[in-house]
Amino acid sequence: MAYRFKTDLKWSDVTPKADFLNRRQLMAGAGALALGSIASPALAASIATVPSPYSTDLEPNTLEDITSYNNFYEFGTGKEDPARYASALTTDPWSIKIDGLVDKPGDYGLEDLISDVQMEERIYRFRCVEAWSMVIPWVGFELNQILNKVGVQSGAKYVSFETLVRPEEMRGQKRGYIEWPYREGLRLDEAMHPLTIMATGIYGESMPNQNGAPIRLVVPWKYGFKSIKSIVRISLTDTEPQTSWNMIQPREYGFYSNVNPEVDHPRWSQATERRVGGGVFAKRQDTLMMNGYAEEVMDLYAGMDLSKNY
Ligand SMILES: Nc1nc2c(c(=O)[nH]1)N[C@H]1C(S)=C(S)[C@@H](COP(=O)(O)O)O[C@H]1N2
Ligand SMILES: [Mo]
After folding, report:
1. With contact defined as beta carbons under 8 Å apart, do 139 and 63 qualify?
2. Residues in the chain with pLDDT < 70?
3. Spatial distance between the Cα atoms of 224 and 129, rounded to a whole number of angstroms
4. Residues ≥6 apart with Cβ < 8 Å to 210
5. 82 Cα–ligand 2 center, Å
6. Each residue of 41-89: pLDDT tens digit?
7. Contact 229 CB / ligand 1 (< 6 Å)
8. Distance, CA of 158 to CA of 161 (rounded, Å)
């Protein structure tokens, strides 16, 4: 286990240039160990980002934490399976089919899709429905940039997402705990919200395979399973899309899945969480309404009963 990495540098305070340079130095020390276990050739290239006012000032988890304790059932159900097996996934070339209620449907090469987006560093809280959490410095851009580019039609009300199906490379897909592909969905206004990003990296480097290379969704006010990995299809629809965890256990996992300390999972409390990497003696932390993003997103749910629309 790597030692927890400490710095008094506030990520959100530094200029993009200095941020970038500092990170390169930091990575050389802190990340070297973890990087050795990531088999993404693209990792050699750093991504230029700008900081974001949406970033938290909390200290991010180490790259070691973020890349060694994962949920990615395409590679197995164990927390260590993704780190062990995701290097088998080919992430280049990569294309995303965008279809449904859009003006410009098509198969978009990833390079073309992201060539003119503004990449930002977004340091977000991340809360899994299993009641553990991390702070992750994503590299990404607002999903609304893609949606605006392809032209959302007026009848569209939802966005659905699908992960790649490739059992030769995703060994967990040879088993049927999930009806592949892994699916997720958002209401259109949630998808257009500036906090909702498509992430292509972590700590200024390309996305490690186990975290959803080459591109994944991150919706920081929702439970982690909404943040679908390795996306190959985005569809605009007028009906609520089917989502994987809801298909498996509708009583336990609703369509919204907003982080809410007042609405317990049927089998455990959601009032507190364990911060990964905090050490065995660390106290559990209080879980925050909407994972701490209530001020930004609560309006989206005005008039809704959050205990019914869980
Ligand atoms: N395709 C796919 N996406 C997925 C999952 C998965 O199993 N398959 N697991 C989800 C869950 S439960 C969580 S908590 C997060 C974990 O993201 P991380 O491993 O990058 O922390 O990914 C989500 N996205
Ligand atoms: Mo999760």
Report:
1. no
2. 1-45
3. 6
4. 38, 67, 70, 72, 75, 82, 83, 86
5. 13
6. 444 468 999 999 999 999 999 999 999 999 999 999 999 999 999 999 9
7. yes
8. 10
CA of 200 to the centre of ligand 2 (A): 19
Which residue type sits at 147? L
Q: Say if pTM beats, i.e. exceeds, 0.85.
A: yes
Q: Spell 59-93 as b/e; 16+ CB within 10 A means b.
A: bbbbbbbbbbbbbbbbbbeeeebbbebbbebebee
Q: Give the pair of three-digit tokens for residue 187.
A: 């209401």
Two structure tokens written together for 207? 């996305």
Neighbours of 58 (CB within 10 A): 14
Contacts of 279 (CB under 8 A, 6+ apart): 4
Q: Could you tell me if the CB of 259 is within 6 A of ligand 1?
A: no
The answer to whether 77 and 32 are in contact (CB under 8 A) is no
Contacts of 103 (CB under 8 A, 6+ apart): 150, 151, 152, 153
4 C-alpha to ligand 1 centroid (Å):
23
Distance, CA of 32 to CA of 27 (rounded, Å): 7
